[in-house]
Structure formats: structure tokens, C-alpha cells
């Protein structure tokens, strides 16, 4: 990157040794096949979603039973959003095979 910037500023071609080692010629990835999802983590995610559902039901009940100055979605929506974000990050990361990636993929 800096060799190209230097060339752009000064208008001279880079020395031959810079051009020779400027590109990656080969990438080797070792460590087996794609990683599998962890059943224990998936069970934990399921338990967390059940707890979120129980919390949602409790908040809805409290908001209907007692006079509160706000709508129940002010509590329930951020909880659901963070749960959905965490679940999506886990499942998209495990589907793509989280780990070192080769350039150009």
C-alpha cells in the first residue's frame, strides 16, 4: 500500500523487489473441515428465548394490571431485539464457518 502511495507521489516505478513480493501467492488453511454448531450453546439459546417469552408475558400482564406511564413495548422490544441479534450472530457465524478466512472469499 505504501509502495503504491510512494509511486503515486513521486511518479517513479517501484523497485523490482517490491513488485516481486507485492502479492500473496498461496494460502494454506489447516485444521480440518467446517466447524459444527455446539448443541450445548443451542440449548442455552433456546432456554434464553423461553425466559424472554416468560418475561414478555409478565411485562404484558403487569402493564395491563397496574397503571404504568409507558407502553409494554418500551421494555419488551429492546429485549427481543438483543436476543434476535445475538441469535443471528451465532447462527450466521456458525453457518459461514467462523474462523480464519482466505482473502478474496
Gross morphology: elongated
Number of helices, where a helix is a run of at least 4 consecutive DSSP H or I residues: 4
Q: What share of residues are in beta strands?
A: under 5%
Give the overall pLDDT as a whole number: 80
| Helix and strand sequence | HHHH
List the helices and strands and how they pair.
Elements: H1 2-10, H2 16-20, H3 39-65, H4 73-95
Helix pairs in contact: 3-4
Name the features.
single chain, 105 residues, mainly alpha, 4 helices, disordered C terminus
In short:
The chain is mainly α and 105 residues long.
Structure overview:
This protein is mainly alpha-helical. It has one domain (2-95). Helices cover 61% and strands 0% of the residues.
